[in-house]
Each structure stands twice: as structure tokens, then as C-alpha cells.
Amino acid sequence: MLLDVDEHTGNFGGARAYLADPHVARPAGVIIGYPGMDEVVVGGRGLWRATIAVHAPSGHSGASRSVTGAISRAARLVHLLDTAELPGPDASGFPLGPKLTVTAFHGGEGFSVTPDRVDINVDVRTTPSFGASDAESLVRKAVAELDAELPVPTPTAIAEVAAWPAFRLDEGEQPAAALLSAARESGLGIRAKTAGPSNIGNLLAGHGIPATAGFGVPYEGLHGIDERASLAELPTVYAVHERAVLRLLGLR
Fold first, then answer.
1. What is d(CA 138, CA 140) in angstroms, rounded to the nearest whole number?
2. Is residue 115 reached through a cis peptide bond, with omega within 30 degrees of 0 on the bond before it?
3. Among 44, 52, 82, 242, which has the highest number of CB atoms less than 10 A from its own CB?
4. Pairing of strands 39-44, 191-195
5. Which conformational region is residue 223 in: left (phi greater than 0), alpha (psi within -120 to 50 degrees), or beta?
6. Intra-chain end-to-end CA distance of the chain, in Å
7. b/e for 77-97, b at 16 or more Cβ within 10 A?
8. pTM above 0.90, yes or no
């Protein structure tokens, strides 16, 4: 049994430690418990994340000599990234296209000093046909364009933070097939879904472990301060998971 208290941060330190331990049994598949009775997530976009350090000479805002500071250079890079051309869904059956988002922008303090560095975070959601190497190439192209357009002595630096592959199970693949069948046999109208956000299923996919996410009690306000779930349906959810596990074990 794995209890990962680092799950909600997205770091999954417990799962990473488990998978790195050569003495533990590797699972044949994983069913990730998550609320919602109308769908089972059988896939999701992957991700490629990086921090980018944008440099420029520092200075004083009141100086007679005007320079293009790190904040202005970083803002230009954000525009280049926001307007970068991304492909849409392809013919492979994966229903979503890639997505690029700048999620953090840090630099500067006060009013009179222009900083010599700004750090930004970039999150690229990837697909089977647009993976981590494609995401990195796209970001490096924007960075090269910035450094050529607004050159400074110190080049812009990219540091990769994480890279998880996209994944998608067919409805007939386990453990998706067992969970979907168990829910439908219980009279529930349920569908398979490929999600835009990533989850631990992407990390597991990188280790060759198939996973589903979802199927649980109804909910409202997910991840909000008023997050809540209805426990009245818990017996039904339990029965579906029991039926699915027994089927996977060949006992049903």
C-alpha cells in the first residue's frame, strides 16, 4: 500500500520513491480513486515544464541612458510564447491538441532599480504526436528569436523541470475495461474521457503502467475552498470498484 502525502503538490514524491525501489512489486495497473460518477478518465495530456531565466543589464529607472531591461525582454518572450503556433488534434484518435501557458513571472523590486534577471515558468501540455522534445523545441525557438531581436551579453537560459508523456487507454484495455464494465453493469451511464489536465496516470505511463482516474461519489467545488462530496452514493461506488477488482483478479 502506498500513501503519498506529496500527491496534491503534483510532485508525487511517494509514488516516485515507490517506483524507484527495486525491491517492491510493480503494479500491473492502477485505478486512481477520484470523485465523479459520470466518467472514467482513461487518458490525459502530458506535460513539459521549464523555468526560463531572462537577463539584461541592471540600471536605474531615472538614468539618462535607456536600456531594454529584463522585465521588458521577459514580457516580449511571453508574447512570443503566447502567440506560438501549436497543432490541433491529430488523426491518431487522441482528442486534444497541445497547449502552452506561461504560469509565473518573477523579477524586480521597488521602483527605481531595473532588475538584471526575470524568471518565468512555462507549462506545455503535450500529446502523443507533440511530445516533450517538440515542446522544448518550440520554447527554444521563441528564446532564440528573443535573443536575436533584443540581444544582451547573457543569453536566456532554459531549465527543464518535469516531462511526463501523454497517455490514452482504449476502452477494451485494462484496467479501464473492468471499471467501465462494472459501472455499466450497475446501471450507471458512464463514459470514457481523455482529460486536458495531467494526473499521476501520466507519471505511471512513463513507467509502462496503465492507469485510470476517476469514478467516485458526486462532488461540487472540486479543489475549491467549498469542495464537498455526496456520501449517499458511496455504497454504489464501493460495489462498482469491488466488481471491477474481482474481475481483474479473475474471480468474477
1. 6
2. no
3. 44
4. parallel
5. left
6. 23
7. bbebbeeeeeeeeeeeebebb
8. no
Three cell numbers, residue 56: 539584461
Q: What letter represents residue 177's amino acid?
A: A
